[in-house]
Design a protein that fits this description.
homodimer, Rossmann fold, 13% strand
Chain lengths: 280, 280
């Protein structure tokens, strides 16, 4: 099987690493960043660098792992030229806009809308990790709109990398992601901002970070362009989530200002319930 | 050396584990929770359980690892009865109130105000971890108010457990902790609250948590009583920190609502600077 990965960042690069090590799979790379292409070749991430046209000519499967704001344009232009037996898998972090964009395309059946729930706070080909997707969840949207053979191939690819597939609508996906992923990123970015803003003594931030700060602020290291695109495309869900978060912080602040320890404990005890949910 | 650990929770229990394995150190335990005493004996955390009076009679060193709201009363009552060669080490997460409370005591020189920056989101004797303090920072306040021999003994104890000591005033300690530790906890507790409040579908929270949420919400599993006491005692510093945090979240929300990606990216790029500070 010949697979082209378009976008050789953290996600695309990690796909290339996992797939390239499999028997009878050739992985090619496409990226409009020349440095990324060079790095991917030097690292042996891909067998060769291709142009988009070359990738379309030679590939059975195209995997789009570009920033979400470049996704529709890329996907539609590929679908316009695709053959009847090729397929394109999208791996982006928001799903409603891309699913709407391809909805009425003649080749809709050759498109798979997916979102592997894996990542780190790093970016670029050098951030690629073998096994990044092992035992991770992968959300597939609008399964019924993809041709059976294309879906079977996509699922074979995901399963060969150790992913567990979950199926939901693009609307559900974007709503859940606003709470469980995107809000965490906003919370972490602004926590980093607050501490950098007020703690003028960087040596103390560094010295004292072994106190929970390092884990809560980890996501603040993430790529701003990647995330501004995601936030912007999911603001319909993320804005109300952020409002709710600010409201809870305000409520907690009032309890603290009032010296109302039992109210603070009541809130924290409710929050403790996350342990039961996550540590099943 | 005979050491009594008062309060056999995560911190006290971990002290007992590390010190109890050393040659020529006998570790005793004091705890007003009978279950904790039983668990500590069953786990072999301590050589024996003592009453406070027995601990005072037999120990060279007393380590107070009780919740911060019980600390002053305990410490002062011990200092009233202590001999001239005994010493008491406090390990609490806020330092100004305890330092003020002991300031004019006749035995001030036998008191060491410390805060080892280590912990997990778990609590009780079963949460005790051997090596918890290895390579961790330990803040010591008002070093000059402790007798030299007492400070030397305390430092020997901390270093034997692999801690690196930092010295600062109680005011500096509490201010830095508000930003670098306490705010992270509030942020995480309320993130957990927000997600639990809105995501009625717990299975989805669990399924989708591999998206940054698990690390940002980890601290929301922490003990409510421990943290309400810490927040309450440091609210002078924590309230303005929380205000700043809410302000940044509001600013970010406005940029997002306006679809102003370049402003969002500007904030996130500034927040990225935390990478340079933390990953030295």
């Amino acid at each position: 099987m010949k697979i082209s990965v378009i976008g050789l960042g953290l996600i695309g690069g990690s796909f290339a690493k996992d797939l390239g090590s499999q028997i009878n799979v050739d992985v090619y790379g496409v990226d409009n960043n020349a440095d990324h292409c060079l790095q991917a070749m030097e690292m042996g991430l891909v067998k060769n660098i291709l142009s988009l046209e070359q990738a379309l000519e030679t590939s059975d499967v195209l995997i789009a792992a570009v920033p979400v704001d470049a996704l529709e344009h890329l996907t539609l232009s590929l679908m316009d030229k695709m053959g009847d037996h090729q397929l394109i898998i999208d791996t982006g972090s928001t799903k409603k806009l891309i699913c709407n964009a391809v909805e009425n395309h003649a080749k809709r059946g050759r498109f798979v809308a997916a979102h592997p729930l894996a990542g780190t706070e790093f970016s670029g080909p050098k951030a690629a990790l073998k096994g990044l997707f092992q035992n991770k969840k992968n959300i597939i949207c609008e399964r019924e709109k993809t041709d059976d053979d294309a879906m079977q191939t996509a699922i074979k690819i995901f399963e060969s990398m150790g992913m567990h597939n979950i199926f939901m609508s693009p609307e559900e996906h974007d709503k859940h992601m606003a709470y469980v992923s995107h809000l965490s990123h906003v919370s972490s970015f602004m926590l980093g901002m607050t501490v950098l803003d007020i703690e003028q003594d960087e040596k103390q931030i560094f010295n004292l970070a072994g106190t929970g700060f390092a884990s809560t602020v980890r996501l603040a290291k993430s790529n701003p362009k990647t995330w501004s695109a995601i936030f912007d495309r999911n603001k319909e869900n993320l804005l109300p989530a952020l409002d709710q978060y600010i409201l809870w912080l305000e409520k907690f602040k009032i309890a603290m200002a009032d010296g109302d320890r039992s109210q603070m404990e009541k809130y924290m005890t409710e929050a403790n319930d996350i342990r039961r949910v996550l540590d099943k």
